[in-house]
Design the sequence.
C-alpha cells in the first residue's frame, strides 16, 4: 500500500513539476481542463494519507530494530543503511509536504527543490528495499491474511526460505490484535482522514471537511487565494486608476482600464487548482489571450511571457506556449463580479489544466517572445 | 525472481544517487546541513520517542485491558492516533493566515473532538454488540 502511495506521489509530483518547467517541444496540453486539478488533488490527498500509512508501517516493523545481533554482515549493514535513508526521507517528505500545504515553513531551504530531489532519493530507496525484500513480499501476498500476522502467527523461522532477514523473535505473551484487525484499523483511520480532508478539492464534500486545511466557500467570490494583494505588495499599483497593460511584440500597444470592459466578452468555466492540493471550479469572463497576442503581431505558436505588477518574487511571471495559449483568458470577472483585488484585479491569467501559481495575477505586461 | 530483484535494486540505486547528486548541487551548504539535521532528527524522534511510546501504550493495554475488549480499544486508539497526527499541526496553525486564503479557518480542536467522539461511539457499539452476542451464545474465548 505504502509502495503504491509513494509511486502515485512520485508520478503526480513529476507531472506537477512539469507544469513549472515544461520542455519547449512538448507544451502543456489545455485539455482536460481538470487535468491538473485531478493529479494535484490526488498528490496532496495521497500525501496526507501517507502520513498515517507510514507511521503504521513503521510501527509494524519496529520490533525488527531489536533483533540480535544488530548487524550480521556487511550486506546486512548496507541494507539497514538503505532502510534508514528510506525511513528518514519518507518522514521528512510527508512532514514538509504537509507543512507546505499549511503554508508553514520552519526550514531554511526552498521547499520545491528539496521536495523534488528528495523524492528521487525516497523512490530510489523504496525500489531498492522492494528489490531486497521481494521474497518476503511474495510470501506475504500469497499467505492467508489472518494467518500471516507479521510478527505473531507464523514465526519467520518456519519460513526460512521466504525471509531474507529471518531471525528469532519471541511471540507476544497474550493474543493481541490480529493482522486483519490492524489492516482494518489502519484502513479506517486513513479513510476518516481522507473523508474529512478531501473536501478542499472535491467541492461537494466541503461540509465534511473537519480536517480540511482549505475551505473554498470562505474565499472572496467563492474562491480561496494563495497570495493576497497585501502579501504581494501590489495593492497601490493594482488599484491605481492609471493602470495599463503593456503588450510588447512586433506591434506593441497598451490597454487601459477603459479598454478592458468592451473586450471582456469571452466566458469559460475553469477550476483554480493550487499546487497545495485545493481546487474549486469557477465562472470566468475576460479577454481572449490569443486575440491580445495576435493584435501585437504574435501567432498561436508564439511563446509569451506574462509579467505581474508584483516585484521580487520567483512566480511574478509565467511563460506560455501551445494549446494553453489558445485556450486561456485574461480574466476581468470571477463568478459574475469584477475580480477581487486578491484574485488579481484588474487583470489576471486563467488557463485550463494549469497550476494556480502559474496563472499570473495583477498583470502589468505581456511580452510576445517569438 | 532474482532478475527482478537485480532490476529493482539497480533502478533504485540509480534514482537514489541522482536525487542525492541534485540535492548536493542545487541546495546551499547551510541548508543542506539543516536538511541533514532534519533527516536524522526524523529517525531519532520516531525510533526513540514515538515508537517506544506506542509500544508502551500497547504494553499497558495488554496488562490492564481484558482480552475481549482489547481489540476494540486498539482499533479505536489507532484510528484516533492517526487522525490526531494530522489535526495537531492545524490546531496550532489555526488563524495564522490572511482571511482571503480561506486557509486554516476551522476549529480543528473541536473537530478533532467530534472525530474522536464518533470513533469512540462506534467502537462502543461494536463492543456492546460483541458482548450481547457472547451472552446469547457463550463460546470459548479465542
Sequence:
Amino acid at each position: 500500500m505504502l509502495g503504491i502511495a509513494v509511486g502515485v506521489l512520485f508520478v503526480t509530483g513529476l507531472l506537477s513539476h512539469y507544469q513549472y518547467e515544461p520542455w519547449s517541444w512538448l507544451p502543456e496540453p489545455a485539455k482536460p481542463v481538470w487535468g491538473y486539478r485531478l493529479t494535484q488533488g490526488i498528490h496532496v490527498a495521497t500525501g496526507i494519507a501517507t502520513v498515517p500509512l507510514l507511521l503504521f508501517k513503521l510501527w509494524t516493523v519496529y520490533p525488527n530494530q531489536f533483533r540480535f545481533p544488530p548487524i550480521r554482515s556487511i550486506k546486512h549493514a548496507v541494507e539497514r543503511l538503505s532502510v534508514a535513508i528510506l525511513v528518514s526521507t519518507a518522514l521528512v517528505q510527508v512532514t514538509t509536504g504537509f507543512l507546505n500545504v499549511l503554508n508553514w515553513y520552519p526550514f531554511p531551504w526552498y521547499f520545491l527543490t528539496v521536495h523534488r530531489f528528495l523524492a528521487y532519493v525516497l523512490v530510489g530507496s523504496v525500489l531498492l528495499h522492494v528489490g531486497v525484500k521481494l521474497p518476503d513480499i511474495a510470501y506475504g501476498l500469497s499467505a492467508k491474511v489472518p494467518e500471516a500476522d507479521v510478527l505473531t502467527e507464523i514465526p519467520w523461522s518456519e519460513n526460512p526460505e521466504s525471509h531474507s532477514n529471518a531471525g528469532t523473535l519471541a511471540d507476544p505473551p497474550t493474543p493481541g490484535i490480529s493482522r486483519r484487525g490492524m489492516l482494518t484499523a489502519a484502513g479506517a483511520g486513513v479513510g476518516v482522514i481522507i473523508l474529512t480532508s478531501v473536501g478542499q478539492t472535491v467541492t461537494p464534500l466541503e461540509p465534511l471537511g473537519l480536517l480540511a486545511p482549505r475551505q473554498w466557500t470562505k474565499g472572496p467570490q467563492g474562491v480561496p487565494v494563495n497570495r493576497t494583494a497585501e502579501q504581494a505588495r501590489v495593492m497601490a499599483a493594482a488599484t491605481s486608476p492609471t493602470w495599463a497593460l503593456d503588450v510588447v511584440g512586433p506591434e506593441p500597444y497598451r490597454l487601459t482600464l477603459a479598454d478592458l470592459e468592451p473586450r471582456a466578452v469571452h466566458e469559460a468555466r475553469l477550476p483554480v487548482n493550487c499546487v497545495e492540493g485545493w481546487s474549486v471550479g469557477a465562472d470566468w469572463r475576460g479577454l481572449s489571450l490569443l486575440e491580445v497576442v495576435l493584435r501585437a503581431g504574435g501567432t498561436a505558436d508564439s511563446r509569451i511571457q506574462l509579467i505581474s505588477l508584483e516585484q521580487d518574487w520567483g512566480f511574478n511571471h509565467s511563460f506560455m506556449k501551445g494549446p494553453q495559449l489558445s485556450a486561456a483568458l485574461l480574466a476581468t470577472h470571477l463568478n459574475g463580479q469584477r475580480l477581487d483585488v486578491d484574485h488579481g484585479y484588474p487583470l489576471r491569467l486563467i488557463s485550463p489544466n494549469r497550476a494556480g501559481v502559474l496563472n499570473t495575477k495583477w498583470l502589468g505586461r505581456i511580452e510576445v517572445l517569438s | 525472481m532474482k532478475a527482478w530483484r537485480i532490476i529493482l535494486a539497480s533502478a533504485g540505486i540509480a534514482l537514489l544517487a541522482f536525487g542525492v547528486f541534485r540535492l548536493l548541487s542545487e541546495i546551499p551548504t547551510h541548508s543542506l546541513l539543516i536538511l541533514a539535521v532534519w533527516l536524522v532528527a526524523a529517525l531519532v524522534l520516531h525510533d526513540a520517542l514515538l515508537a517506544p511510546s506506542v509500544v508502551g501504550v500497547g504494553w499497558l493495554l495488554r496488562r490492564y485491558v481484558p482480552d475481549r475488549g482489547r481489540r476494540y480499544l486498539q482499533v479505536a486508539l489507532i484510528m484516533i492516533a492517526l487522525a490526531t497526527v494530522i489535526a495537531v499541526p492545524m490546531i496550532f496553525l489555526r488563524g495564522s493566515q490572511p482571511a482571503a486564503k480561506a486557509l486554516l479557518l476551522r476549529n480543528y480542536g473541536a473537530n478533532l473532538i467530534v472525530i474522536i467522539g464518533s470513533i469512540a461511539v462506534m467502537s462502543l457499539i461494536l463492543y456492546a454488540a460483541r458482548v450481547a452476542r457472547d451472552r446469547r451464545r457463550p463460546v470459548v474465548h479465542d
Notes: The helical segments of chain B are 2-26, 29-64, 67-93, 108-136. The mean pLDDT of chain B is 90. Residues 29-64 of chain B form the longest helix (36 residues).
